[in-house]
Amino acid sequence: MYVTSLSHPGILTLAEINMLRSEEFVWLFDSVIENNQSIATRVAHDRPFSSVQNLKYRFHHYLFMLNDHGKKDIIMRYPDFIGKLVEQESCSTATDTKPDPEYESMTSQQRDKLAKYNDS
């Protein structure tokens, strides 16, 4: 998809963002939260935005309003981040003797996949 209604190719004003068709808005902004079209679709319904800060706030709002399953889904889309969390957790085990219940509940396949992402 290519947005054809721009006054300057590649640069959008807030007014132009507010006038985008919903599918154009989703196409343009779905990568804000790791290719999550559902959040971009919800934010598209909040137009018109009064400012760039208001646009950013809407994405933050929907991200933080997700239930635990939705948040976990977003986090699972960032394997590098997960690997760093696991590294930090393993480094802190010297002072914290309780194992992480989420890590402990992972299958061996999930742990192997996590290790693979962590090594790359």
From TrEMBL:
It is an enzyme of class 4 (lyase). Pathway: Purine metabolism; urate degradation; (S)-allantoin from urate: step 3/3. GO terms for cellular component: peroxisome. Keywords: Decarboxylase, Lyase, Purine metabolism. It catalyses: 5-hydroxy-2-oxo-4-ureido-2,5-dihydro-1H-imidazole-5-carboxylate + H(+) = (S)-allantoin + CO2. GO terms for biological process: purine nucleobase metabolic process; urate catabolic process. Residues 110-120 have a biased composition (Basic and acidic residues). Residues 18-119 form the Oxo-4-hydroxy-4-carboxy-5-ureidoimidazoline decarboxylase domain. InterPro entries: OHCU_decarboxylase, OHCU_decarboxylase_sf. Its EC number is 4.1.1.97. Residues 92-120 are annotated as: Disordered. GO terms for molecular function: 2-oxo-4-hydroxy-4-carboxy-5-ureidoimidazoline decarboxylase activity. It comes from the Eukaryota. This is 2-oxo-4-hydroxy-4-carboxy-5-ureidoimidazoline decarboxylase. It comes from Melipona bicolor.
